[in-house]
Known about the structure:
The complex is a heterodimer.
Chain A: E1 3-7, E2 13-18, E3 24-31, H1 45-52, H2 62-71, E4 75-80, E5 85-92, H3 96-106, H4 113-131, H5 134-146, H6 160-165, H7 168-178, E6 184-190, H8 194-205, E7 226-231, E8 238-245, H9 255-266, H10 271-277, E9 284-291, E10 296-304, H11 309-326, H12 330-349, H13 351-365, H14 371-379, H15 383-392, E11 400-405
Parallel strand pairs in A: 2-6, 7-11
Antiparallel strand pairs in A: 1-2, 3-5, 3-6, 4-5, 8-10, 8-11, 9-10
Helix pairs in contact in A: 3-8, 10-11, 12-14
Chain B: E1 7-11, E2 17-22, E3 29-35, H1 49-56, H2 66-75, E4 79-84, E5 89-95, H3 100-113, H4 118-135, H5 139-156, H6 164-168, H7 172-182, E6 188-194, H8 198-209, E7 230-235, E8 241-248, H9 257-268, H10 274-281, E9 288-294, E10 301-308, H11 313-330, H12 333-350, H13 354-368, H14 374-382, H15 386-395, E11 402-407
Helix pairs in contact in B: 1-7, 3-8, 9-12, 9-15, 10-11
Amino acid sequence: xxxxxxTLPNGLRVVVEAMDSASSAAGGFLVRTGSRxxxxxxxxxxxxxxxxxxxxxxxRTWQEITIGFDDLGSTYNAFTSKERTFYxxxxxxxxxxxxxxxxxxxxxxxxxxxxxxxxxxVILEEIAMSHDQLESHVYDLIHEKVYAGxxxxxxVLGHKQTVAELSRDQMHDYFxxxxxxxxxxxxxxxxxxxxxxxxxxxxxxDRWPGGGPRPARVAPPGPGDGITLLRLERxxxxxxxxxxxxxxxxxxxxxxxxxxxxxxxxGANSRFYWNIVQAGVxxxxxxxxxxxxxxxxxxxxxxxxxxxxxALSDALRREAERITREGVREEELQRVKNRRRTxxxxxxxxPFYRLVQLADDVDTFxxxxxxxxxxxxxxxxxxxxVAEYLERWPITGEGRLFSVGPRDWPVGAS
Amino acid sequence: xxxxxxxVHRRLDCGVEFALERLPGxxxxxxxxxxxxxxxxxxxxxxxxxxxxxQTITKGTTKRxxxxxxxxxDAIGAQQTxxxxxxxxxxxxxxxxxYLPQSLALHAEALRTASFPEEACRVAVELxxxxxxxxQDQPDELAQRMINRQALGPRLGRHxxxxxxxxxxxxxxxxxxxxxxxxxxxxxxxxxxxxFDADEAANxxxxxxxxxxxxxxxxxxxxxIEFTPGARHEHKELEQQQIFLxxxxxxxxxxxxxxxxxxxxxxSDGMSSRLFTEVREKLGLVYWVGAWADQPRSGGMIFxxxxxxxxxxxxxxxxxxxxxxxxAEDITETELNRAKVGMIAKxxxxxxxxxxRASELSSDLFxxxxxxxxxxxxxxxxxxxxxxxxxxxKEHPRNRLAAATLGPRALKG
Lengths: 414, 413
């Protein structure tokens, strides 16, 4: 599989994957900035800025932007994470150029002052919505404690106070420093002519003002040990998480193995499914990889009725010890690989799925990766790799325990 | 002119209704297998029973235990899921084409020879109880459950998990009775998409399900909607208030359905839609707002929903109703055409995904009893004009409304 991967004179990188069997095309602008690139008083500015990029440019009002997308019949949206912001649209192949023009225009947002306050209200509603979800509290608490004192610790949405106090001028400064060609990648996948996409990129983005890459990121310290309890009496479930250090997203050696361990423990037909859920201990138990460019976590977690905390905690620990002590059988690992293979074939059908994966690959590894390459990496995994991985990245011991919900458990925890 | 899709549709000797969309060159196979029974076939005393059948039907067969059964799917890399709905169980799968026969055989094995181990049934009841507890932490789903009961009635408005008291009564015997009484080839639809020969695929399915079950009928008897207008509020400590409104719409097979579908697109598809623009963009009242239709076979309901902080819920409610009412007065050709373009374009782009093709074909079988060509769908949508929308809204006004709110305070007025 060949990619077009070129950088324009102004620093904008363009990555294109041609998919001749598709009838559609998807394109997006990856901005290599996220909530970890903020300063604490401006927590949430990346996400707020993502919203503001839909609110108007020199050429278009917000109505013209949204009408532009809908006139194309685009499947579109944007998202902000801890490390990146991504704006995308998926259209019929003949509409790609119009889609890229619209997205490129949005990247030069006017950040209309008269829309700023209104959009702030929308984000405050989004924050309120997240507070009604137990999972959001768990996610935010883990980051708050594990990455205390580091920019990874605050929520992507920011806090009510930081969002409320953010000014348009502060956002504009952030926008100017990050939304420049050195920090942006145009990614396209689908039934396209790569050279035509490159021509479009030159035409649409050549005049973007220059700028440098975002400031370098500093790695956080390790997660440490300890127990954190957040008592939230209005919820009915308790969530328990055992958190351990894990490879970063760019750890070429261990990233695939780490994914496989998470799947073996907590995926479909997994050890947690049979030994925790189907044992009646908890209705939900899984393993989740948190991965950033310079650090990572393995989170073993479950949701249970409050009176089952002890049983769930013991079960999570027991399964972690068992996989470490006994390893995995080759046929068990092969089942994970078989499922991944089918998933990759499904991904290869869709310009939209490939677009999202390409953006992730370019941002994480600095280059696009084809489906075949990823399949080969997965196929190479062996049971001994899992055993060696667990020696380097143990999941036994207490780790950091988080307990979130109505019950004061473990008793005496902070 | 859209190229016709290559469909095959037939009733097999075994009784299964089979449809295939041939997609030469695709590297994936996807199918939806429906059994036309669901929550509507539960008794009032055993609500949640269909869900428990879904949870336990793969927990063992006469050939192997539950873990061995799922291992067999994994051995061929087949990704499978299942669900229970009001009027159908769904068993979905995507796999590499060369593994289709094994995948179908595995589904046949569970549907025909499930062993429903005693312990698995006991655990499923236990877990369902835990999931009912967990449901209390999902305000949007709780509010949807409230409005469904009002909008669709006591049978169609059921929630898969039933109620604590009814789930607790269910035992293995109930699960077996439901399965034996309701499952059979005569009630099955299989919608397949991929690079297959129709006769070969049909023969595989025919052999797999030959002689399977003797349900009392084909599962297509309609269950009527029982709509109850009125407002209901449940108190819950939340940061956002959930607001759900519902009123009668039309069935999927109604000649007015295209007008309803386009109307909903104008109201809610995309960021330029009425609700997104008026409730969120112009007033900043919400993060989430939407409108959609829900259609059992016998009819349809329109839903409008939003979540907002309590001090804004009255204004949000007013604006939601204002926008629904205003549509009849001032819908424009421009926004109508934009909505239609969006629907047609998305059907094309999403058609790159084999899984989507199988789902669409399955939906056609369920509602229309046949595959429906894209050209026919496009023609129906394209033919909707402003006058059709206005007539639809006049004949299906929202004057009889069900409203469900969940949160710290009830709506005023």
